[in-house]
Amino acid sequence: MSLARRATSADAAELVRLRRQVMLDSYHGPDTDTGRHPAAVTTLRERLTDPDGDLAAFAPDLRSRGHSRSCVEALLGRYRTRDVRVIDPHASPDGEALYTSLGFARTPDPSMRLRFPGPLRS
Predict the structure, then answer these.
(1) Among 12, 76, 116, 122, which is most exposed with the fewest C-beta within 10 angstroms?
(2) Is 116 within 8 Å of 77 (Cβ atoms)?
(3) What are the Cα distances from residue 113, in Å, to 61, 75, 91?
(4) Which of the pair, 101 or 28, is modelled with greater confidence?
(5) 26 and 94 in contact (C-beta within 8 Å)?
(6) Cα separation of 59 and 40, whole Å?
(7) What SS3 state is found at 115?
(8) What percent of the chain has pLDDT over 70?
(9) What is the mean pLDDT of the chain?
């Protein structure tokens, strides 16, 4: 059973907060400027409303060990069904081990990369 569910527009504020806390703060240190948050929440809310849009985010249903893995695996499943071939996440240092365990490799840029093998759909 997956601990992740597809994020909805109601999750936008929490996703923006988590992105800042988990990813951006880990690179640059704490940032107290939240002036961009309302616009980011509005944009994310609009993009998450379209179920066939080009943005998918997943959120944990439960706070438990393994929820990050569950969310990333759910995203990878969605990418496979949409014939996405290359994924370049900008993993935080704390998240790098998870991505490595799922087949991602470090690139020269501050990102990692996963390439899915040839035709994904039958």
Answers:
(1) 122
(2) no
(3) 27, 14, 10
(4) 101
(5) yes
(6) 17
(7) strand
(8) 75
(9) 77
> 92: which DSSP letter?
-
User: Cα–Cα distance between 50 and 7 in angstroms, integer?
Assistant: 11
Task: Tell me the Ramachandran region of residue 66: left when phi exceeds 0, alpha when psi lies from -120 to 50, beta otherwise.
Answer: left
**Distance between CA atoms of residues 20 and 85, nearest Å:** 27
pLDDT at position 16 is: 83
pLDDT at position 61 over 60: no
Report long-range pairs for 23-32 (Cβ below 8 Å, ≥24 apart): 23/90, 23/92, 26/92, 26/93, 26/94, 27/92
Domain residue spans of the chain: 4-84
